[in-house]
Design goal:
Length: 246
Amino acid sequence: MTRRPYPLTSDRWETGPMPTTTEPSVDAYLGSSLHLLPQTRHLRALHTIARDRGARRDEFLHASERIIRMLIEAGLELLPYEKHEVTTPVGATYEGLRPASPVCGVSVVRAGESMEGQLRAVCPDIRIGKILMQRDKQTKQPHHSYTSLPADIADGHVLLLEPMLATGGTALATIALLLDKGVAEENIIFINLITVPEGVERVCRRYPKVRIVTSSIEQRLNENAYMIPGIGDFGDRYFGTDIGLR
């Protein structure tokens, strides 16, 4: 397999300066490129549990998976649908709908794999590809380390799974790879748990036809590029490898 560098590999690893705008805003993208879940009291309660550093792992898993389920369903709502009639058990005709385009999932290893279970729960027969981006320890340059995608991925829509969108580094690199594979920009639906204005603005400027679905827009990035108030390292918390890190 040929390895090739991509622009960025992580939400904290940069090969160039961040945008110079001092006050990034998401207002211009809401409802078009950016789709925010309704900020209900129930969603806020789930976030309260998931963000609590003292939450038990089973509490964290339950709350975060409920949010992910909502995100997956919101992402599916953005797919194109076509009319499809079926006959009900009483012999009547129901004028229904079905997806008008093939769809697959692509998770960004490893944190994105935490979202696969809920995607399969909603779409049991969906195919899921994987992409791994890693930083070279010596050169500090990003590299595409591993990809396994459906052969016909360019024929339909892609639900891109990554819980965190901070600086936008991983997102830009992954989207670039999918475009290289022939996926249309407008066919990429990027599903993430939380984001910040800096990341949204960067992705939407570069790829305005990609649609982002998120459950929370955080206040900002701090000087270490951590999201505030944040949720911690989602992958470590989800897979239980954060023991001793708190």
